[in-house]
Design a protein that fits this description.
This protein is elongated. Helices cover about 40% and strands about 25% of the residues. A hairpin with a 6-residue loop joins strand 3 and strand 4. The C terminus is likely disordered.
Length: about 260
């Protein structure tokens, strides 16, 4: 079989000498700069877009800052007024420092007073000895009674009145929660009757068809806790009374006769 070599003679000589064909790298010299140019254009557009977004965000922030500054300028007069009020308050507290804050005490009494207690008088007094304030509050009032305190007696058709002193205990407990009071105690406590007088009001006596209201008439006293009751002291707000003793409930009212110096 005859073999025919179609390669040019010079290629045959190169093969015989062991010299391989030379490759042409001209395309790489042209393509590489073009590729770098394309990448730079893409990077420039990306940076330009990011710069535009940040510029818009900066403009929006400057606009919001301008609006806030305009509102702050319009509210400046209220800030000045608040500063004046704070200065007046500081001056008043300094002037009244050490005096008993009766308005706060009376407010806490009204908040904590049980609903089955009504006060007929409040007598408050205070004094200052050697630069130290002292005071006390005396209460007079009535505690309502539950209607079921009238129980059948020994005689037919007769009812015996059995007083319930739990409303008084509730009153003392509630007043002891007022931190402006140091001590609270009961002075007097007696059953009484408001209305047409029945046959008797003492425990165990007979009554027939009463047309009034049974109450527990009491008097109690509280001494002032100077550390919490003076002007400028920091105290917690009193909580209102929501529960009552089993003696029932009624609207509480008070008439105060406040004595002493403030």
């Amino acid at each position: 079989m005859t073999r025919i070599n179609l390669l040019p003679p010079e290629r045959i000589k190169e093969r015989k000498k062991g010299i391989g064909p030379q490759r042409n790298y001209l395309w790489l010299v042209i393509a590489l700069p073009l590729l770098i140019l394309v990448l730079m254009v893409v990077w420039w557009f990306s940076m330009s877009s990011d710069m535009n977004r940040k510029t818009e965000a900066l403009d929006q922030a400057n606009k919001e800052l301008s609006d806030i500054q305009a509102k702050s300028a319009s509210l400046q007069k209220y800030q000045e007024r608040q500063n004046q009020i704070n200065q007046i308050q500081t001056t008043v507290v300094q002037a009244l420092s050490g005096r008993i804050y009766w308005a706060r005490i009376l407010n806490n009494i009204a908040i904590t007073c049980p609903t089955n207690i009504w006060l007929t008088s409040i007598d408050a007094s205070s004094s200052v000895t050697a630069g130290t304030a002292a005071g006390s509050v005396t209460f007079d009032g009535d505690a309502t009674q539950c209607p079921n305190r009238l129980l059948p007696g020994f005689s037919p058709g007769m009812l015996d009145y059995h007083p319930d002193f739990r409303p008084i205990a509730g009153w003392l407990e509630r007043m002891a929660q007022i931190e402006q009071f140091q001590r609270v105690w009961l002075t007097t406590c007696v059953p009484d009757f408001i209305g047409a007088a029945p046959t008797g009001v003492e425990p165990g006596s007979y009554v027939t068809s009463p047309t009034g209201t049974y109450v527990i008439r009491f008097s109690s006293t509280a001494t002032i806790n100077v550390a919490k009751a003076t002007v400028g002291s920091t105290t917690k707000a009193a909580t209102s009374s929501t529960g009552t003793s089993s003696g029932g409930s009624s609207s509480s009212s008070a008439s105060s006769s406040t004595g002493g110096s403030q």
